[in-house]
Structure formats: structure tokens, C-alpha cells
Design goal:
The chain is α/β, with parallel strands linked by helices. It folds into two domains: 2-156 and 344-368, Rossmann fold (3-Layer(aba) Sandwich); 170-341, Rossmann fold. It has 15 helices and 15 strands. The chain has helices at 12-23, 53-71, 84-90, 103-106, 113-125, 134-142, 170-174, 196-209, 225-234, 251-257, 272-279, 290-293, 310-321, 324-341, 344-361, and strands at residues 2-6, 27-32, 41-45, 75-79, 93-94, 96-99, 128-131, 150-152, 182-186, 214-218, 240-244, 260-263, 284-287, 303-305, 367-368. It has a seven-stranded parallel beta sheet with strand order 3-2-1-4-6-7-8, with helices on both faces. Strands 11-10-9-12-13-14 form a six-stranded parallel beta sheet, sandwiched between helices. β12 (260-263), α11 (272-279) and β13 (284-287) form a beta-alpha-beta unit. α8 runs parallel beside α9. The longest helix has 19 residues, at 53-71. 45% of the residues are buried.
Length: 369
Amino acid sequence: MRIAYLSIGGHIHTERWLRYFVEKGHDVHLLTVQPAPIEGVTVHDIRTGIAFKPLHYAVALRKVRRILERIRPDLLHTHFLTGYGYWGALARFHPFIMTVWGDDVYTTPHESFLKGKLARMVLRRADVITGDSEDILEHVVAMGGDAQKCRLVQWGVDLDRFRPDAPTAVRERLGIPADSPLVISIRSFTQAYYNIDVIVRSIPAVLSERPATHFVIAGNEGDDSELRRLADKLGIGPNVHFAGRIPHEELPAYLVTSDIFLSVPSVDATPVSLLEAMACATPVVVSNLASGLEWVTHEENGLVVEAGNRAQLEDAILRLIDAPEMRMRFGRIGVEKVRKGADHRAHMARMEELCLQLVREGEGGRGAG
């Protein structure tokens, strides 16, 4: 197949997805306003340099249409309902697959009448809609998406790399004693709803009870300077390690060496980092969001706290620090859940078959229409 993607360039989710299809021998093209090289992928830059958004979208749409006319893909697969989704729908190319990510469903379409109308238009025009949790697909249907078009497809975990016995030398590199409890957060710094500030503000209370504890704060996107200043203000600098963007190939080492993984956003779909932590048998603390609860049951394989509730977060961290047997049990069950339900290659194989089926059926008629 020749597949054209509209998606965020330079993002690990996009890269992993596209690399699978390249490895399977497909001709993969990426149309993006954030161009970054991906081995085996032809990247098309659709940036316009126009600050006025309506004109930017219109000019970029012309670029998208011309590229699609030139490369003549077998299908168009757009990632992210808002933004890229607009171009995907307005290109009127079929077959057209729409993959939703998270806040493109949970928040952005509800910010204005126009954004909501555009999002519903994208959902109507898509031939297939995929999402990584039952919850996000339920929200898609509530927005007007056709439930018959919806498919559950996980980003998934590379189980060869993310495993409990992955080698690690992270503690030595960061100067953390082998017997010190280590707590890790790996979430983006770009949005306040990830509640990284709540995590940082919880640290003094944890250190007052367990002063040997160390924290690693990392994120795939954004600037952590405000959080660094907050840590300095709180006087917790020596016990907090800001790791910035950890290369994906190094991430298993960080997770395996950590005693607790935190993911406590107020808005989210299924966090891939959560599943990766579970695959490494790292005990987890998550916020009470529906997508996360599809994977974590309170006191069965993790602890659940209210999003934004610092006192509950502090208690959960301290409880896990003091309960090694609970950590081992949570870790063991977490590995089983992820291996059973979130294998990256299994979900990409499902996605590949879905693409092939659409191409075979010629759903909507190939090309513009």
C-alpha cells in the first residue's frame, strides 16, 4: 500500500506508528507542519509561514490536496481530530481513517462553537475512526461519530524493549543510592492538565516522611523551567532530577529502576508511558480518569487518586514506598495486563489489516470525492 499520513512530525507516537508500516514494506508518506526525518518515510512539509490561522489552514489545505494528487495514495490516515483532522476531512480523500489522540476529543472541540462544528465534520467524513480506549471512543460517539466506524487500536508497547529485566544504570548516572526509593513522572510539560506541578508540590510532604526518596521528572514535550523554579522554591532540588526528554530507547532503564510511576492528569486518553511502566513491572499511581481505569484497578494493580488531589497523591506515594510486597504484586499483575492487551505489534497488525480491508473494499471510492 501507499499510505499518506497527516500527523504531528517529530513525535514518538507518529514515528513508532509509521515505522511499523515501513518495516512491513508499505510506501509511507507524512504530510506535516512539524517536519522531522523518519527513516524510510517520505516527509512532505506543508508549513505556510502565515500567522493568520484561517489563511494558514486554507493555503496548507491546497498543499495537502496537491501532494495527494501527485502521490496518489491508496488511503489517507489522519492523526489528531483537530488541526490535522480538518485538513484530512477537507481534502475529501477516501478511504479516510481518523485516529484520535486525547485532548483533540476531550477539550479542544468544546472550546468554541466553530471548533466543535469542525470536529463533528471530520468525524462524519471519516470512513473509520480509531482510538486507544473505550472511553475516548464513547466521547467520539457522543460528539456525533458513528459507533459502527469506531475501532479500538492501542499505540501499544514494544514488549521486547519494555520488560522487567531491562538493563539499567540510571541510578549510577544520576547519583541516586541503590536503596533510595525512586519515583518517576514522564508526562508532557505542555499542558497544565497533566498536573506535573501537583507532583512537584507533593514532594516536600513525601520527603518529610521519607527523606531518602528521589524523584525523576521527565517529559516528551515542552519546557520544564517553571517546574525547576518551583522545585528550587520548595527547597527540594537535591532530591529531584529533571531529565527533560528521555530518548525512547533509554526509557525502559528509567522505568525498571524506578519504584513508583506517576500519571495523574485531569484529562487524558490511555497514556502510553503508563503502559510502558506497567510492562516494566513498575507499580503505578494514576488519576481517576476512565481511560486509565481501563488498565488500573485500585489496590489490585495500582493506586488511584483524584486528579489534582495532592494529599491523596502524597499518601499513595508514601504507602507504596512502605509496601514492597504490594509493589511486587502490582508490578506482576501490570506486566500480565499489558502483555495481554497492549502489544504494539499486535495492534499495528490489526491496523494494517484494517487498512488493507478498506483499500480492498474501496470504501468511499479511492481519491478525492
